Amino acid sequence: MLDVRRLRLLCDLSRLGTIAAVAAAHTYTPSAVSQQLSALEREAGVPLLERTGRRVVLTAAGRLLVQHGETVLAALERTDAALAAARTGLSGELRIGAFPSAIRTLLAPALVTLGERHAALDLLLTELDPTDVPAALLDRRLDVGLVQDYDVVPTDTDPGLDSVPLLDEAVHLAVPLQATGLRNLRDLSEAGWILASPGTLCHTAAVRLCGSAGFTPRARHRVDDFGTVLALVAAGQGVALVPQLAADQLPAGVRLLPLPTRRRTRVAFRQGAAAHPAVAAFVAALPPA
């Protein structure tokens, strides 16, 4: 019989790529992870890993076991959801990950609704960039989280996650009110830009959009909070990419130009967890897509 905890480690190795990364995700030592994977190989009766230089890669049998392992882990999630549904009332913790503008506009009312409906459910909210949410879900640091993609930054769905749509919104170019004669991105190839931190989805979207217009944006400021971004635009400090969700409180001195791209937000959770009462309650409390 295969040990499901070791099977989870193998699936994490397939996702994360290195034993060191798996160890960090589980707060184990790399040696402990290696020992557990060796034990899984003995249970399976076939080699699951092979060394290529200093790296460890999955064999064909290892990749096959990962495919079946994802199915097993999803079944365990469904089992946990079924047991939770058999209990009376919702209690315990629901760990939520979301980006700041969604927390302010979408999640705050939903959290109030959940708190009123399920007083024994503890809601733990963590501010996270959408790029960090999938790993936090798969590492079991979150139960639900908001993920995103832009037309210019499509994202692959992780096989261990499911999701439901939440929001499909326009994306604008925020420019100072006094800036005239601007019609499209190409008119801003020499402008100073207010960009998000490198590695965030918003930063990648801005760079790719500008690249499609034939230039690389020159960063004058790097700011992740859209309220601050819009204040800097109003002060004439640069231009910025702003999704509709962040433009609900537009300061004086800023005007928006439409861009040919959209941003989509989805509620993600581990595969098999959709029927968990706490996850279902969270999704139900959000505004309809």
UniProtKB/TrEMBL annotation:
Pfam families in UniProt? HTH_1, LysR_substrate
CDD domains (UniProt xref): PBP2_LTTR_like_6
Its Gene Ontology cellular component terms are: protein-DNA complex
Q: Which PANTHER family match?
A: LYSR SUBSTRATE-BINDING, TRANSCRIPTIONAL DUAL REGULATOR HCAR-RELATED
Q: Per UniProt, what is one GO molecular function of this protein? A: DNA binding
Protein name as annotated = DNA-binding transcriptional LysR family regulator
Q: Which family does it belong to?
A: Belongs to the LysR transcriptional regulatory family.
Per UniProt, the keywords (alphabetical) are:
DNA-binding, Transcription, Transcription regulation
Q: Where is the HTH lysR-type domain?
A: 2-59
- SUPFAM superfamilies attached to this UniProt entry: Periplasmic binding protein-like II, Winged helix' DNA-binding domain
